[in-house]
Here is the input.
Amino acid sequence: MGTSNLNFDFVFLGQSVLKYQVPLDIFSAINQIYEQNFHNLAPANKQLVGKIENEHSLFYNGQDQSKMKNHNILPRNVTDYFMMIFKHYLAFNKIRDYDTHLNSIWVNEMKQHEYNPAHIHRGMLFTGLSSVMILKMPSTFGKEYSNDAIPQNGRLQILGASNGQFAKIDYQHANHRTLLRDTLCIVQVQLMSFHQNQNDYH
Here is the structure.
């Protein structure tokens, strides 16, 4: 798979966000592996900030610690895909001479009233890249208790650290249902949050 076939959008947020459409075989493989191995997956809750019951790890290639040991249940084409988009992100932003290391991949299965507070990702260093892939969407995101003309339930929000009169300081996709099968690639120091009040997945 070459980078010339990548389908992506560019969003400028001080530091850029690239939105890639995930190849169907990668998307399907991750969903299938998660569902088939769910009861044997390592819980990731202790190293994550989410208020989410089902947080499970598929890949960890960092230093062994009490919270998590090295493991991988993903095929090579899936981990290669993540490395490819990270390298493409660096090249697109003209960032050179960076060694890349894939640290961890996990799944947050969010149910009604569960949420992620605003947070950052980091591996062994504070620098690096992070991504969010939307694997499934619920049939409904629940009642909007106010201002339902601007729905917020179930939204992914990315907060930037830029400033200035015309700076764009946060990103929400206009129609979050169209984020299914997308990967958003960002630098790790951006803040991310998922808004609560999602209903069960179907």
User: Anything to note?
Assistant: The longest helix spans residues 76-92. The chain has two helices and twelve strands. Residues 64 and 177 are 37 Å apart (CA to CA). Helices lie at 24-37, 76-92.
